[in-house]
From TrEMBL:
This is Phage Gp37/Gp68 family protein. Residues 209-225, 238-251 have a biased composition (Basic and acidic residues). Residues 175-251 are annotated as: Disordered. InterPro entries: DUF5131.
């Protein structure tokens, strides 16, 4: 992709190839897939990946020279049109090329965001200097947070970050936040999600509420079965407790003498696009509060194209609005339409339109390899 980017949390984007296949619910409206198809690039497990010539690969070297001249480090998001850790042998040579490029561009911080953190250990060479590598994973709901974040945190990198985008349900991130992390087995208390409603996003009757199978790298991955806020809340203490014990033990963390490492940065975003699913500002509020409590930098990117607010009435309730009807349908609560938040910005990315607690765009600023 090009030199500049519209993604608010990075300076550049770079794609080592184009193409991917869907992994989970977060991929349902994959913008990269629609974008690639507009350019005639096939998508999915049986499609070839699109590779690029030397000129494309030399672009980051130019960014590196400029960053060095200005003595200002730049962030590079890799990849917006692919997943660096997709398991296909035809991608191995491109990955080798990427590792070399990363080591030759020390003024660039490479943000490798994946929905396949289980492949990082296999694919990222042990000997590669990781001073300029930030490893990240997407956690669009609690199920994938539980599955992917422990895998991410078992790796070493300059930063370990999580993208909560598209946020599709409430998530308790606190067990993995740097300061908020609990020793394994220690129960958590308190209502991190604030007020809940009887009809809130991701209810079991909603569009995304049923279990289904999707293909993932030739395997079948069980996704879905999101809980509503009420059941998530009532079951959360048990699941947090269980998650702490199970996942940390799986990673061998309980045997470490020092405190396990947590998430160093968290990005929040609602879904954009014509088929956007609802984003409840209550989820964003809760996540920002969790990060603040743990002193972890948090970046609120956007409220998405279908923002609602189950906690507060913002004076925008419009039950007859077609977006309100769509949100009610997605949430399975046609009789009780959610409190739709109407914004001018099509992606909900103008923070001046949102309540002040969302005006937070922080970055991690320390440069340490862990
Ligand atoms: S992993 Fe990312 S690029 Fe691949 S299909 Fe899912 S959303 Fe699209």
């Amino acid at each position: 992709m090009g030199e500049t980017t519209k993604i608010a949390w990075t300076d550049h984007t770079f794609n080592c190839w184009w193409g991917c296949q869907r992994v989970s619910l977060g991929c349902e409206n994959c913008y990269a897939e629609s974008f690639a198809k507009r350019y005639g690039t096939a998508w999915g497990p049986s499609a070839d990946r699109r590779f690029f010539p030397d000129k494309h690969w030399n672009e980051p070297r130019k960014w590196n020279r400029l960053a060095e001249a200005a003595r200002v480090r730049k962030r590079v998001f890799c990849a917006s049109m692919a997943d660096v850790f997709e398991a296909r042998s035809d991608l191995d040579s491109q990955r080798e090329r990427l590792w070399k490029l990363i080591s030759e561009t020390p003024w660039l911080d490479w943000l490798l965001l994946t929905k396949r953190p289980q492949n990082i250990k296999l694919m990222l060479p042990d000997g590669l200097d990781r001073k300029n590598i930030w490893l990240g994973t997407t956690a669009e709901n609690q199920e994938n947070a539980d599955k992917r974040i422990p895998l991410l945190l078992s790796n070493r990198a300059a930063k370990l970050f999580v993208s909560y985008e598209p946020a599709l349900g409430p998530v308790d991130f606190s067990p993995w936040l740097e300061e908020g992390r609990q020793p394994p087995g220690e129960p958590r208390t308190g209502n991190l999600f604030g007020t809940t409603t009887s009809c809130s996003p991701s209810s079991e009757g909603g569009t995304h509420g049923s279990e289904r199978d999707t293909q993932r790298d030739g395997e079948v991955e069980r996704v879905g079965s999101q809980r509503d806020s009420t059941s998530a809340l009532s079951g959360r203490e048990a699941s947090t407790d269980r998650r702490g014990v199970r996942d940390l033990r799986q990673d061998g963390f309980e045997d470490r003498t020092r405190r396990p490492l947590g998430i160093s940065w968290l990005i929040i975003g609602g879904e954009s696009g014509p088929k956007a699913r609802p984003f409840d500002l209550a989820w964003g509020r809760s996540t920002i509060a969790q990060c603040k409590a743990a002193n972890v930098p948090v970046f609120f990117k956007q409220a998405g194209a279908l923002p609602i607010d189950s906690e507060r009435y913002l004076g925008t309730f419009a039950p007859e609005d077609k977006r309100s009807i769509a949100a009610a349908k997605a949430l399975g609560c046609d009789d009780n339409p959610p409190n739709l938040v109407l914004l001018w910005h099509p992606k909900g990315g103008d923070l001046s339109e949102l309540p002040p607690e969302f005006n937070v765009r922080e970055f991690p600023n320390q440069r340490t390899v862990r």
